[in-house]
Amino acid sequence: xxxxxxxxxxxxxxxxxxxxxxxxxxxxxxxxxxxxxxxxxxxxxxxxxxxxxxxxxxxxxxxxxxxxxxxxxxxxxxxxxxxxxxxxxxxxxxxxxxxxxxxxxxxxxxxxxxxxxxxxxxxxxxxxxxxxxxxxxxxxxxxxxxxxxxxxxxxxxxxxxxxxxxxxxxxxxxxxxxxxxxxxxxxxxxxxxxxxxxxxxxxxxxxxxxxxxxxxxxxxxxxxxxxxxxxxxxxxxxxxxxxxxxxxxxxxxxxxxxxxxxxxxxxxxxxxxxxxxxxxxxxxxxxxxxxxxxxxxxxxxxxxxxxxxxxxxxxxxxxxxxxxxxxxxxxxxxxxxxxxxxxxxxxxxxxxxxxxxxxxxxxxxxxxxxxxxxxxxxxxxxxxxxxxxxxxxxxxxxxxxxxxxxxxxxxxxxxxxxxxxxxxxxxxxxxxxxxxxxxxxxxxxxxxxxxxxxxxxxxxxxxxxxxxxxxxxxxxxxxxxxxxxxxxxxxxxxxxxxxxxxxxxxxxxxxxxxxxxxxxx
Length: 521
Prior knowledge:
By secondary structure, this protein is of the alpha/beta class. The protein contains 19 helices and 28 strands.
């Protein structure tokens, strides 16, 4: 240990360009180091101690990166919040994470204020990037605090929230071990080393740049971007993803690695040929994708266009996973890869017995040194476990040589455009409408997004189904659920299929939509 880690590299070379905001503003490693150090001093002055948490409702860019860097050297948990959420949804996460400070960007002021009020955040703990009513500007918080290296530094972590079958998000919380932040960061660089990605210019003399294409509140975005920074790469942020802008940025900053989802590939391939050939993307060496199955023809087209830089993996916020190099995938089209060197993957039947190769069952994973708990929910933590393995509820099979193929999803989770959406959370809101007697929400195929949200509703007695009711339901959902969780379409039925014990037979509703597909996800 001792050659990687942002703080170590920034001290050695403060002039390296560490980040580029969506507006093109460049920040040196020294500037980020100074800001994150000052933030640690300022929040410690408010009484924050090790194992405390902070939350950020901020768009992609340096503001959130500074929160991340401060937390990871002060022994705190940092929770980046999905900015599509409503005030009550934000408030729940802020309260549940027990955040001792809440940071809101002025772009998200309305929802941020409502979230802070919902969570009962004290006025002295509310901070703003820009102008947010009732929040102290971050510059005012930092005023008078030195940018010197804080004493008693120790590793912190991100605590992302992931939903479950009950619909309430849960924080994935890992124990902190009080070790040097740079040593902890260097350990985490195994993630990019799995793909063969080298450190940046500060270590090797060869510049590396990582393009951030998706919102920073996603676990993978934080992990891949954060790890790239800890290896001395330049982070290039996109505010809102656009296909042509992606090509422009790759060419401009000579981007060498990025993290994407299959929806991005679909849109890139939909660009006119003249646009696609206008930009030089030859600098790209590792275009890594995950979050949803990638259709085999789409993957072939990307390999034909970008060459053998398209890598795939299957993983979870909770830890563990598989990886497929371009060569592995071409030899096993459709695979999501084989287990990482520090991970293990098994496929089991309903009794927890391991199944032979080629037989589909529930996928379980584990990763060395990555034990976790769902914060405040021991039952959910235990429910996901089989010995020291855990599951996301996906169904698949392993080949004789250990390559994993996904075939179905045991849980009801919907993955749309790379975002995890949980039907129970949506159903729990729709059922509150007085004109709804019963509701089922599930995912159906969408060629661009992978899946889209479908709701089937049994209207209350005497209620007329139709467009007027649909509009009324959408109005009802506006203050309750982020728009990304709304059903794309609503169908109506006289009665939902339920067993005598009341269990909803959602498969009867869902399966016809997937009948002509090779997989059910």
